[in-house]
Specification:
Immunoglobulin-like; alpha+beta; 2 domains; eight-stranded mixed sheet; 703 residues; 24% strand
């Protein structure tokens, strides 16, 4: 055997061994692309689908990954959220609750093995660019975590001059600007360039590659072309808000709502719409940089063997619950984006709606990459089973902690908030997605509240959320029928859909300031009561068998406490708006129950009027002035007279009974007419007004 042949043989053997080793790690040790996004709330189209949002990259990636639509942060602030995710331990264990609680000062956190550190210990090349930790550890420890840490750590560029006056209450960098300089002024661009260059390199060992985007964290500067996607601030739909939303929130919740920027000041300054526009532009800018990175991965030899984990560290309020920041226990601050693509494991384009936590990322990656577990006991659970089958029904909860004794538990339906001082909040998010109606302390939900309270952590000990059981009320549906409960007295408004009774009215009771009422689930009783006007102490009432009150049938449940507004307009008009759904309240004199009409929504407050339903009393029905502009009411002085106003000269007025027999017809020459109903009898009558080619019909009841 010649020397030259021997060299060739040895080279071939070594090459074969090298190829075998690379094939072996490709099959057994997948790569990880770990992407963190700062301050991205659930406005993206994959979750809330905020009107007009432009996130084409996230939309496209959703077709390849599993999207967790009910994911929640362990803590609603940057530092504690990232510390929890990277250690796999909750804030109640590490004592890291706010940005000032440094990881370097937490013996528990420093004594744990950080997620990328575990990968490095087990043979991975670890690379980081951008914001992964909120604040760096010592250089020695960072060297134990990362093989490479190139890139730029900065929230810039800052606005060249302030748009929001410094006199307003606002955090640092709370400002915006359309950026006309080069894209390279943004760390998100240069950090994305760094990761793209690493994906184009040849790697001889599996890699854990982390990229941390700073946008849409403030300052909300972005290249001008992304602002141009949202051309007019006054045409952008603003987040839904409820006036006086905090009136049923305990004092500790109100304190959190007052943190960050002062919402009322920002709104009064005229910058509210522009800041929301800048936030949306920042999201679209980030989405574009994300697209560049994912394109580089898809065009690399690592595409088929790289797990992609994409998440936001927490959410952000934009005026919801009068809050303009993060750091609350409400849905807008805790809900976050989480997407995972695991080749050969995850379903493409699947969505999972069960509650999960960002604490589940650590054990999921340990499982998917077949790593040895870290020394600390991880709080979360692997999501491999959900990645394989997103239809699995898992009864579990997600916990968010804001202080040592303040937590929120999120199930698939309920949000339970405990402020640690005997107060809290409970929301049925299936029926009340905006968290406008606090059910805490209501007897009907006592069982739900008690069971959810058992899932709070006890010190550093966490309940096993995977063992959560279905709550007794989870099968209740949100129907259109309801009971009204008086907010201060707890008395109940009834109406019976079977006997034709509609609300009676005492005219003076329409006068007075705004009145709130609430909805409560209905036990099947039929007690009577009178509904008192808060401002005037007068009543709306119905007379049946000598008893004053209202009745409603048993299939009338919609949820426990819903605010209504009753606002006087004049002696015949008022506003009655269902503020949780924005839909309208109506009743029909033919016996229909009070019902929320899904086809008649025009906004949070819509004007209604009482149209009379009898001549001798003041029985009425609610009608929509968008459809009926004619006012009809009983004469308050003389029984047997039905007053009709709003008639135009020359209009044809005809009244028929339900069988079509005409009881009146004429062309009044005055805008107001008194009709003698003494010979009409009792029942339902149709009042038809014809004006040119337009005809309107109103039903009234004579009893």
């Amino acid at each position: 055997m010649t020397t030259k042949f021997l060299r060739i043989l040895i080279y071939c053997v070594c090459l074969a061994l090298s190829m075998h080793n690379r094939i072996g790690y490709t099959q057994q040790k997948p790569n990880v692309l770990f992407i963190a996004i700062d301050d991205l709330n659930d406005y993206v189209s994959l979750l809330q689908d905020y009107p007009g949002i432009h996130t084409p990259t996230l939309d496209q990636f959703a077709q390849q990954a599993v999207t967790f639509t009910n994911a929640h942060t362990a803590a609603p602030l940057c530092n504690p959220s990232r510390a929890a995710l990277l250690t796999g331990l909750g804030p109640n264990h590490t004592d890291i609750y706010v940005n000032g609680d440094k990881v370097v000062n937490s013996p528990v956190a420093l004594g744990s093995t950080f997620l990328p550190e575990l990968f490095k210990q087990q043979g991975y090349q670890t690379i980081s660019s951008g914001k992964i930790f909120h604040a760096d550890l010592s250089s020695t420890r960072m060297g134990q975590i990362w093989d490479e840490e190139p890139g730029t750590k900065s929230y810039g560029p800052q606005p060249t001059s302030p748009n929001i006056p410094d006199s307003l209450q606002r955090p640092n960098w709370f400002d915006y600007q359309e950026w006309t300089g080069p894209d390279s002024d943004f760390p998100d661009v240069t950090n994305a360039d760094t990761i793209i260059s690493r994906l184009q390199q040849t790697h001889t060992q599996p890699f854990f590659m982390a990229l941390g985007f700073y946008r849409p964290h403030n300052p909300w500067t972005a290249p001008k072309r992304y602002f141009d996607l949202y051309p007019a601030a006054d045409s952008i739909e603003m987040p839904p808000r409820l006036p006086n939303d905090l009136e049923d929130v305990p004092s500790r919740g109100i304190q959190f709502a007052g943190g960050g920027a002062d919402f009322d000041q920002i709104q009064a300054s005229g910058h509210y719409e522009e800041v929301v526009r800048a936030y949306l532009a920042s999201i679209s800018f980030m989405d574009d940089q994300l697209g560049r990175v994912l394109d580089a991965l898809n065009n690399s030899p690592y595409a088929g063997n790289t797990i992609v984990v994409l998440f936001s560290d927490h959410g952000f309020h934009w005026g919801e619950k009068s809050h303009f920041a993060k750091s609350t226990l409400w849905e807008r601050a805790t809900r976050t984006l989480l997407m995972i693509k695991a080749p050969q494991v995850s379903q493409s384009g699947a969505k999972y709606s069960g509650p999960v936590s960002l604490l589940d990322i650590y054990p999921t990656l340990v499982d998917l990459c077949s790593l040895q577990a870290p020394p600390q006991a991880l709080y979360g659970h692997s999501l491999r089973y959900v990645l394989k089958d997103s239809t699995v029904e898992a009864q579990r909860y997600a916990l968010t902690t804001i202080r040592a004794d303040m937590h929120a538990v999120r199930s698939d339906r309920w949000r339970y908030i405990d402020y640690g001082d005997g107060t809290g909040e409970l929301y049925d998010l299936r029926c009340d997605p905006h968290e406008w109606n606090n059910l805490w302390g209501q007897p009907f939900y006592a069982d739900v509240q008690q069971k959810l309270s058992t899932w709070l952590p006890q010190g550093a000990n966490m309940p096993d959320y995977a063992q959560a059981q279905k709550l007794p009320t989870d099968s209740i549906t949100c129907t259109e029928y309801f009971h009204l409960f008086h907010k201060s007295s707890g008395q109940k408004l009834h109406n019976d859909p079977n006997n034709g009774h509609t609300p009676d009215l005492e005219a003076p009771s329409l006068m007075g300031p705004e009145v709130h009422w609430k909805l409560i689930s209905i036990p099947e009783d039929s007690g009577y009561f009178r509904l008192e006007h808060q401002g005037s102490n007068q009543w709306f009432h119905c007379q049946e068998n000598g008893v004053t009150g209202f009745r409603l049938g048993p299939k009338s449940w919609t949820g426990e406490r819903t605010k209504w507004s009753l606002i006087a307009v004049d002696s015949l008009h008022f506003r009655l708006a269902h503020k949780a759904s924005g839909r309208w309240l109506y009743a029909e004199p033919d016996g229909s129950a009070l019902q929320l009409a899904s086809t008649t929504h025009t906004g949070d407050q819509t004007q209604w009027r009482f149209a009379p339903a009898s001549s001798g009393g003041s029985s009425t029905s609610l009608v929509n002035p968008q459809d009926y502009t004619i006012h009809i009411w009983p004469n308050p002085v003389t029984d047997g007279l039905l007053m009709v106003s709003g008639i135009h000269p020359g209009d044809d007025l005809m009244v028929c009974d339900i069988l079509g027999h005409k009881v009146y017809q004429g062309q009044p020459h005055q805008p107001e007419l008194a009709l003698d109903t003494s010979s009409w009898g009792k029942g339902i009558f149709l009042v038809r007004i014809s004006s040119g080619d337009q005809t309107r019909t109103i039903k009234v009841m004579i009893q």
